[in-house]
């Protein structure tokens, strides 16, 4: 995708299948605004993409891109929710400061997560930080590091697996 003809086809697919695309993203994300954003992001990505090989089923390809972006957004939101819940609760309740226990727990959780990040291979840590802290896409990370998007995906899985105790809210190390 990326030529004028392909961009026109992409645009036509987005116009024709907009309701289905937004519905797909909505089922994953649970938020109509975020679903609209994902569909818009997919459109921009596909218009900007320069594909070396033609896509046989463009409508299916577009649906898969929207699905993948929605899943990435869902995963990112789940991690952010788990990491920042205690901190956000303190912000949302100005009349009542977080208890000292909650503050200590939050600090320990974040500290443990940062320590665990330091144990990851440098490139895996860089991929995780670029994705979650710098809001880069996996494609952007791959281009920046000169590796394939598949390798970036595997490194993301390794980082998530290493950080599972903190992401899931249990700070106990796996056996």
Automatic annotation (TrEMBL):
Source domain of life: Bacteria
Keywords: Sigma factor, Transcription, Transcription regulation
Domain RNA polymerase sigma-70 region: residue ranges: 14-78
Domain RNA polymerase sigma factor 70 region 4 type: 114-163
GO-annotated biological processes: DNA-templated transcription initiation
GO MF annotations in UniProt: DNA binding; sigma factor activity
Pfam families found in the cross-reference section: Sigma70_r2 (PF04542), Sigma70_r4_2 (PF08281)
Similarity field: Belongs to the sigma-70 factor family. ECF subfamily.
NCBIfam families: sigma70-ECF
Name of the protein: RNA polymerase subunit sigma-70
Organism field: Pandoraea oxalativorans
Classification of source organism: Bacteria, Pseudomonadati, Pseudomonadota, Betaproteobacteria, Burkholderiales
């Amino acid at each position: 995708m990326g030529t004028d003809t392909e961009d026109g086809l992409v645009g036509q697919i987005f116009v024709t299948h907009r309701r289905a695309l937004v519905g797909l993203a909505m089922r994953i994300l649970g938020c109509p605004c975020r679903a609209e954003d994902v569909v818009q992001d997919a459109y921009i990505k596909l218009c900007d993409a320069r594909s070396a090989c033609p896509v046989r089923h463009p409508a299916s390809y577009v649906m898969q891109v929207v699905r993948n972006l929605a899943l990435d957004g869902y995963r990112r939101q789940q991690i952010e929710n788990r990491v920042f819940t205690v901190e956000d609760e303190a912000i949302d309740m100005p009349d009542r400061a977080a208890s000292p226990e909650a503050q200590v727990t939050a600090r320990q959780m974040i500290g443990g997560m940062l320590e665990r990040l330091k144990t990851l291979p440098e490139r895996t840590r860089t991929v995780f930080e670029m994705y979650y802290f710098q809001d880069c896409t996996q494609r952007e990370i791959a281009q920046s590091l000169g590796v394939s998007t598949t390798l970036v995906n595997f490194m993301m899985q390794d980082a998530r697996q290493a950080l599972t105790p903190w992401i899931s809210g249990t700070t106990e190390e796996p056996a």
